[in-house]
DNA sequence: ATTCTGACGTGGG
DNA sequence: CCCCACGCCAGAA
């Protein structure tokens, strides 16, 4: 059948739908893609998000709400600053009220 | 081709 | 919550 969209594109598509001031987890996206368990690939795709300005990688964190990928951004606190810029409180790489700000792609995009 | 790593998640203790 | 181990699969060396 028709060639499916690349794994990366699927990730980007969802990431692009993340609303302002909201965040989601890699696993949530992975599940939405149907590749639950391969959450690592989601993060891997994000690694190439630098080529896609439409992909707010800073809004994607791990399931603990920890900014595990902040180290991959340009600066050291760039990711945190971006999140705080959207009204998200971040302390020590940990998003405050993570569950409250969590945006479930499966529920919203289903 | 093989090997290792990696922005994760889940399960068991 | 913590720690440990396994699975996952794409890409780089």
Task: Describe this protein's structure.
The chain has 110 residues and is mainly α. It has one domain (7-101): Winged helix-like DNA-binding domain superfamily/Winged helix DNA-binding domain (Arc Repressor Mutant, subunit A), CATH 1.10.10.10. It has six helices and four strands; from the N terminus they run αβααβαββαα. It has helices at 7-16, 26-33, 39-47, 78-85, 98-101, 105-109; strands at 24-25, 60-61, 90-91, 94-95. The strands form two sheets. The protein has a two-stranded parallel sheet. Strands 3-4 form a two-stranded antiparallel sheet. β3 and β4 (94-95) form a beta hairpin. The longest helix has 10 residues, at 7-16. The radius of gyration is 13 Å and the shape is globular. The model has no long low-confidence stretch (mean pLDDT 92). It binds a DNA duplex (13 and 13 nucleotides) through residues 7, 25-27, 30, 35-47, 49, 57, 60-63, 67-72.
Outline:
The chain has 110 residues and is mainly α. It contains six helices and four strands, in the order H-E-H-H-E-H-E-E-H-H. The chain binds a DNA duplex (13 and 13 nucleotides) through residues 7, 25-27, 30, 35-47, 49, 57, 60-63, 67-72.
CATH architecture: Orthogonal Bundle
According to DSSP, the number of beta strands is 4
CATH topology: Arc Repressor Mutant, subunit A
Spans of at least 5 consecutive residues whose pLDDT stays below 50 are none
Give the count of structural domains: 1
How would you sum up the major sheet? 2 strands, parallel
Give the strand content.
5-15%
Q: What percent of residues adopt helix (DSSP H or I)?
A: 40-55%
Classify the secondary structure makeup into a structural class. mainly alpha
